[in-house]
Structures are given as C-alpha cells and as structure tokens.
Write a structure and sequence with these properties.
The protein has 137 residues and is α+β, with helices and mostly antiparallel strands. Strand 3 and strand 4 form a beta hairpin. Helix 2 runs parallel beside helix 3. The longest helix has 19 residues. The protein is elongated.
C-alpha cells in the first residue's frame, strides 16, 4: 500500500480524487487508520458544496461523515499504473527486495524509480511525470 507521506506528495502535486467503491483513504486527523469506500460502509455523497464521505451504520462508530478535502486518497497500485498511462514500461523486484518502476516519456531515456513497495515506486514515477509537465508549462 502507498505510504501516507507519498500520498500527501501526490495530493500536493495536484492529483485529484473522484471517490469510487474500493478506493482507500485516510482521514487527516486519523492517518494511522485506513478506510475503504464501500456501498455498505462508506459512500461518497455529492452535494453542491462538495463531496462528503458518509459512514453507514455502526462500523465506524465515531464518524458520521468527512468532507472529501479532509480525506487523503491512498491510490492502489493498479490506479497508479493507470495514471502513468503509456509512459509505463515495467515493474520489477530486485534481489534486495526493492521495487523498480521504469517509465519513458516525451522521447527521453527510460527512468527507473525504486522504493520499498511497488505502490511507492509507481507514485515516485507519477510525481516525476507531474513535475515534468509543470516544467513544460
């Protein structure tokens, strides 16, 4: 799973979230707790003022709802890979246990990003793409 630190970096870089069932998130004041969007437990409710994540039943005893801006999306590996799109080349695990993601974009040489988890390696690659896009603007 992606680290909260890396998820914060993605959020600060401009990655936006449109909550869907199966998405994981942390609440900014409870970052050690991971919640999952589910029609049975946590549902996104759209209002003119924004999206609210509603907690159903007694599963999450102390929460009725949380504004989306108070939640931090923890994207899964497949979601991060999808965001990399056509730049993604490969994911591999080294003999020392590190995960490496290789991307290629804008005709530049391939780049390798390594981390302890595959999700964090994907996130590092995505951060590099965002930074490259900002540099071109």
């Amino acid at each position: 799973m992606i680290s909260v630190e890396r998820a914060l970096q993605l959020h600060e870089a401009g990655l936006r979230w449109h909550p869907l069932p199966g998405d994981r998130f942390a609440v900014r004041t409870l970052e050690d707790q991971v919640f999952t969007i589910s029609d049975m437990v946590v549902e996104p409710h759209e209002y003119p003022t924004g999206t609210v994540l509603g907690f159903n039943g007694t599963t999450e005893w102390a929460l009725d709802s949380v504004a989306q801006e108070d939640a931090l999306w923890l994207p899964r590996e497949d979601q991060l890979r999808e965001l990399l799109g056509g730049t993604f080349r490969s994911l591999a695990r080294s003999t020392d246990g590190q995960f490496g993601v290789v991307i290629e974009h804008s005709g530049r040489p391939e780049r390798l990003f390594t981390a302890d988890t595959a999700a964090d390696a994907y996130a590092q690659a995505l951060l590099a793409l965002v930074a490259a896009a900002v540099d071109r603007v």
